[in-house]
Design brief:
It is a single chain. Helices cover about 0% and strands about 40% of the residues. The protein is mostly beta strands and about 80 residues long. The chain has strands spanning about 10-15, 15-20, 30-35, 50-55, 55-60, 70-75. A 4-stranded mixed sheet has the order 1-6-5-3, with no helix packed on it. Strands 2-4 form a two-stranded antiparallel sheet. The chain has a single domain (about 10-75), classed as Immunoglobulin-like, CATH 2.60.40.420.
Length: about 80
């Protein structure tokens, strides 16, 4: 997370891949799945959040503090 954006905004991974988000912004952020599948605590500058995607599908997520920040993880076998 940098400049109030997830970068890259969309990624494609294989099942059992662990994705790590790191807050490189000066603002606090969260990572929250639209489906409720995962949610981070509030992240200040520096901390990371990790989630392992075990099931194929498309997972959209956002920052609950800055709703314009959105991203997508596509899990394909």
């Amino acid at each position: 997370m940098k400049n109030f954006a997830f970068s890259p905004a969309t990624i494609t991974v294989k099942p059992e891949t662990t994705v790590t988000w790191t807050n490189e912004d000066s603002a606090i952020h969260t990572i929250v799945a639209d489906s409720g599948a995962f949610a981070s605590d509030i992240l200040g500058t520096g901390p990371s959040f990790r989630f392992t995607f075990s099931t194929a599908g498309t997972y959209t997520y956002h920052c609950s503090i800055h709703p314009s920040m959105k991203g997508t993880v596509i899990v394909q076998p």
